[in-house]
Write a structure and sequence with these properties.
Radius of gyration: 15 Å
Largest sheet: 5 strands, antiparallel
Number of strands: 9
CATH architecture: 3-Layer(aba) Sandwich
Protein name: SMI1/KNR4 family protein
Order of helices and strands: EHHEEEEHEEEEH
Domain Knr4/Smi1-like: 11-148
InterPro entries: Knr4/Smi1-like_dom, Knr4/Smi1-like_sf
Low-confidence stretches: none
Number of domains: 1
CATH class: Alpha Beta
Helix content: 10-25%
CATH superfamily: SMI1/KNR4-like
Structural class: alpha+beta
CATH topology: SMI1/KNR4-like
Length: 153
């Protein structure tokens, strides 16, 4: 099934992506920039994906890819909400129906990989730094993730 999007915004321009990078103080991976130039936010169909957490496979659903604007469902909004709860080298790029973010590692040894953060696995200690062992691994790259979106068997 070909990946399609509904409820998306106008694709971003390279100039707008540079503005967002300056606002965030972070460089976005090239693969994510290419995605934003074609697709900006919205609901994908198919929208289900498999992830692995502590050796166990499970399934989740994408409600929306976050947009980089200043309206509802924005990357900035999620980054502010989750900044002390997700690894510092990740950015939220999408969310599930319950608001749990799908993350893209933007630097470090995990750069380019996609992860799924879930409230139920968040550390109880609010001072504990969120590490990758609390996340579900989704894909080695954004393109791999997008290509693996499917309907659950």
């Amino acid at each position: 099934m070909k990946l399609q999007f509904t409820h998306g915004k106008e694709p971003l321009t390279p100039e707008r992506i540079q503005e967002v990078e300056a606002q965030l103080g972070r460089k976005l991976p090239d693969e994510y920039k290419r995605f934003l130039l074609k697709q900006h936010g919205g609901h994908p169909e198919p929208c289900e994906f498999e992830f692995v957490r502590q050796g166990e496979k499970d399934w989740a659903v994408i409600a929306y890819f976050l947009n980089l604007g200043d309206e509802h469902e924005t990357l900035s909004e999620y980054l502010i909400s989750y900044e002390d709860r997700i690894p510092r080298d990740t950015l939220p790029i999408a969310r599930d129906p319950g608001g749990n973010p799908i993350l893209l590692a933007v630097s470090g040894k995990n750069q380019g990989k996609v992860y799924f953060w879930m409230r139920e696995y968040e550390p109880d200690d609010p001072d504990e730094v969120q590490e990758y062992d609390h996340l579900g691994f989704v894909a080695n790259s954004l393109d791999e993730f997008l290509g693996a979106l499917t309907k659950r068997p």
